[in-house]
Amino acid sequence: MSILSEERTGFHRYLMEKEILTIVGDDSCHQAMLRASNHKSDIAHILHASLSCKFTMRSDRSQNTRTEALNLIRARKGRSPHIVSLTSEPTASRIASLALGTGDLDCVYHFALYELREALVELDADDALDLLDSMVDGKRLKDISDLPLDLAV
């Protein structure tokens, strides 16, 4: 057993002995959705995020993504989930049709954003590069590697 795992085991044993594992007591948080004791039957499912995946985007597909997002927002009971889209679309203008919309989506994630940017630099596609950079700078477009940390909040 390594020193690190011994320290963790010892700390866990300390927590068990001191009964510090209770995070929320019985006298508070009576309406919180995450708390099992607040559900009369089975624990209700909580929608943390809605991820719409489109390999490529035509204009109708970007509109479909927006419609899905608006329907989720209208039908929710509780707080709004993260509403994001994932794409591999190679053209900045089509990505912009979704990312620069009216704010229905929190963010658009691209599965190869860094590679797409490199390709646009190599092709000297200045207009597309400016559009891509404006979406990234405005936090409307991110690489897929950012998704897990963004959803952790």
Present the secondary structure layout:
Blueprint: H1 3-18, E1 49-54, H2 59-75, E2 82-87, H3 92-99, E3 107-110, H4 113-122, H5 126-137, E4 141-143, H6 147-151
Parallel strand pairs: 1-2, 2-3, 3-4
Shape: elongated
Question: Could you give the order of strands across the largest sheet?
Answer: 1-2-3-4
Computed structural class = alpha/beta
* Computed Rg: 22 Å
Helix content: 40-55%
Description:
With 153 residues, the chain is α/β, with parallel strands linked by helices. Helix content is 44%, strand content 12%. It has a four-stranded parallel sheet. α3 (92-99) links the parallel β2 (82-87) and β3 (107-110). The radius of gyration is 22 Å and the shape is elongated. The model is unreliable at 1-12 (pLDDT under 50).
Structure in a nutshell:
By secondary structure, the chain is an alpha/beta fold. It has six helices and four strands.
Feature tags:
153 residues, alpha/beta, four-stranded parallel sheet, 6 helices, 4 strands, 12% strand, elongated, disordered N terminus
